[in-house]
Amino acid sequence: MTTDYAALEPSRSEKFRQRILPLILFALLLVVIPFFGPSRTTLTLLNHMGINIVFALAFNMLLGRAGLLTFGHAVYVGLGGYFCVHILNWIDASDGGFWSSVPVFSMPIWGFAMGALAGAVIGWPSCKRSGTPFAMISLGVAELMAAFAYMFDSFFGGEMGISGDRMSGPEFLGLSLGPLDEVYWFIAFWTFVGVALMFAFTRTPLGKLSEATRDNPERVQFIGFNPTRVRYLVFIFSGAFAGMSGGMAAVQDEIFTPESLSLIPSGAVLIAAYIGGIRYFTGPIMGAIVLTYMQSNLSDYSAGWLLYLGLLFICVVMFVPNGIAGMVYGGYDAVRKGKTAEVLGQFALRALGVALMAVSVIVIVEVAFRYSEGYGEVFEPFGLSLPPESVLTWILAVVPLAAGIWLTRHVTRKAEEV
Amino acid sequence: MNTPVLKLTDVQKSFGPAKIIQGVDLEIAKGERHAIIGPNGAGKSTLFNLVSGLYSLSSGSVELNGQVISGKKPFEINRMGLSRSFQVSNIFSNMSVRENVRCGVLWSLGYGYSFWRNVGNLKEVQEKTAHILNEVGLLDKANLPASLLPYADQRTLEIAITIAGGAEVIMLDEPTAGMSHSETDRAVALIEKAAKGKTLLIVEHDMGVVFGLADRISVLVYGEIIATGKPSEIRGDPRVREAYLGEEADHFEGATA
Predict the structure, then answer these.
(1) Which of A190, A257, A326, B93 has the most CB within a 10 Å radius?
(2) What three-state secondary structure class fits B24?
(3) Are residues A343 and A298 in the same domain?
């Protein structure tokens, strides 16, 4: 008996709308951005966003798609990046040899290869475990590599790291990669390649098996697959794409320091992926954009920006476990089901609640920060004066917080009653 | 006589001092539908786990088509043509029904761990997936998340994943547990269809199902097979009746009637 299997699959137009169109729009966005004449600061920010998007997606191949939490994924960025900075120097120093024919544009490919190699070596023992032991091993590896980085100066350059020059070697596509807007095209190209390839990966048999292994490793064994092998292969790819983002960063920043493979960027990518939403492919993209923006801009406004980031992370984990992407897609679904007014109303109330709480949190953090510094500086937002001993300060620290908590709980209870 | 498809020789399993399986010998012929029954805690599921490779044997051996499979990994045994289901639904809960079955199909069609192909473009895979979904009657629920299926449908999906790889030996662990009468009837019809031309080994508590389905029955009590034979022989066996004293003995009466 033959069955009409085509009816099961999404239709051609659905496939186009869900898989191809978003990529086309993404490419268009990347192409259009430079026509708005972004400043040098904006370009640098955009470039770092591209690098972090690739890194966060690579990280989420493990956490979201394979169910493997790692605390040390920056190791692969660092190794890929360091390798690429060395190549930059080899290209610079070469005189007609192999390296003299290598364009700097190809750095992400070298980073990819190095990341894959590192993933293949480190993943071999660590992928024999999953769950908590895997996470602990990743933490250990990260510490180990950070220690290595300070010990082996010839490769890692000690505390100062090593630097290179992106303007050497043959040009590719007429890009000298000197000015930042040319680096933008380089980053945009590789960001698109990385996003497209990692999306394609989710559609392959191995990509599907990685989800199956995440859901139920026991059953995977009984459909003919070795879950350890699945994890290992995914790990290599994840390391490779992380290394690719390292290659991108090597060209953008022209320097790599041991800090780049420490626990700090490893933690940052975890936060980015989680805030964006690890259950969705696009989640880490959104998270990387938000986090990169916060890293570079919020730090200008407030010395306490890491505190805000930490609070945001905790709140996302506790209250919006599906992250930004979960909210976006949830809202989109509701709109399609014709519940726009209801959802918008709820969203507005929640947003108001969160804003009220944010007012108090900001007052508390900023006043406390200034107080702890001991220079007697006063927090003066919008012409207000909020010294620690003023009654107004305490009112602002308590009343909006209480009101915000009451409002969000009220909305949540209402929503549950329906 | 041909070599048996599945041959267990003096299979033993102990967990510490507890001897759960104490020397099981069993031969199952090609195309046979063999049921294992026994009181709770007799070791039926343990025996399944030993044959399918989830547990390692303390001693003895298991052969599949004359090849020793004891000591091999579950995925290796699966590739050799033995597939099993679980007593508790063991599905990929975050994937759709179709994706669940598709994962079960992949290895048998030779797509292994490939990362250079788009699953959506693999015609063979899509066709076989649809064929199996149709056979088990889940076609109309193909795109639902597996976790949202009603219980009986999850059990059906469990069987669908088990048969998806086209294994010649199918082992079902209590496929009708927790089902209503009508659901059980449908499950039995499905099992008969799925096991056609294959060798079936089934653990089941519902005596109606066992006596209706099995060619031969083995009775496992305290880790030992106390009787093996045709349903009529098992019914009349006094040792079996003794092991099943009380409530379950009534099932035998019911099955005889």
Answers:
(1) A190
(2) strand
(3) no
End-to-end CA distance of chain A: 46
**Beta carbons of B119 and A208 less than 8 Å apart:** yes
Task: Write the residue in A3, A223, A233 that is nearest to B134 by C-beta.
Answer: A3
What DSSP line would sit under A317-352, residue for residue? HHH-TTHHHHHHHHHHHHHHTT-HHHHHHHHHHHHH
Please answer yes or no on whether A5 and B129 come within 8 Å at the CB atom: yes
Is B165 close to A224, i.e. CB distance below 8 A? yes
* Boundaries of domain holding A278: 38-305
Against a cut of 0.95, is the pTM above it? Answer: no
A-chain CB neighbours of B115 within 8 Å are 201, 204-207, 233, 237
Q: Which two tokens stand for residue A271?
A: 């936060």
Report how far Cα A203 is from the mean position of its chain's Cα atoms.
21
Within 62-121 of B, beta carbons closer than 8 Å to A belong to 73-75, 78-79, 83-84, 86, 90-95, 98-99, 102-104, 106-108, 111-120
Does residue B178 sit within a domain? yes
With H, G, I as helix, E, B as strand and everything else as coil, classify residue B175.
coil
Here the tokens at position B38 are 């026994």
pLDDT in tens, chain A (418 residues): 444 555 677 777 888 888 888 999 999 999 999 888 888 889 999 999 999 999 999 999 999 999 999 999 999 999 999 999 999 999 888 877 888 888 889 999 999 999 999 999 999 999 888 889 999 999 999 999 988 888 888 888 888 889 888 888 777 777 777 788 889 999 999 999 999 999 999 999 999 999 999 999 999 999 999 999 999 999 999 999 999 999 999 999 989 998 888 898 999 999 999 999 999 999 999 999 999 998 888 877 777 788 888 888 998 888 888 999 998 888 888 888 877 787 788 888 888 988 999 889 888 888 888 888 877 777 878 878 788 788 888 888 888 899 988 988 888 887 777 6
| The total number of structural domains that make up chain B | 1
By CA distance, what is A15's nearest residue in B?
A: B120
Q: Which domain holds residue B104?
A: 6-256
Residues A291 and A188 in one domain: yes
Contact flag B118-A5 (C-beta cutoff 8 Å): no
Q: Which of A178, A2, A197 has its CA nearest to residue A108?
A: A197
Side-chain half-sphere exposure of A33, counting CA atoms within 13 A: 22
The residue among A219, A228, A280 with the most chain B CBs within 10 A of its CB, best to mutate, is A219
Q: Does one domain contain both A137 and A281?
A: yes
* Rg of chain A in Å (alpha carbons): 24
Chain B nearest-CA distance from A64, in A, is: 12
Looking at the 3D structure of chain A, how many domains does it have?
A: 2
Query: In A, what residues contact B, Cβ < 8 A?
Result: 1, 3-6, 8-9, 15, 200-201, 203-209, 211-212, 214-216, 218-226, 229-230, 233, 237
Q: How many Cα neighbours within 13 Å face the side chain of B95?
A: 27
Say whether both A58 and A146 belong to one domain: yes
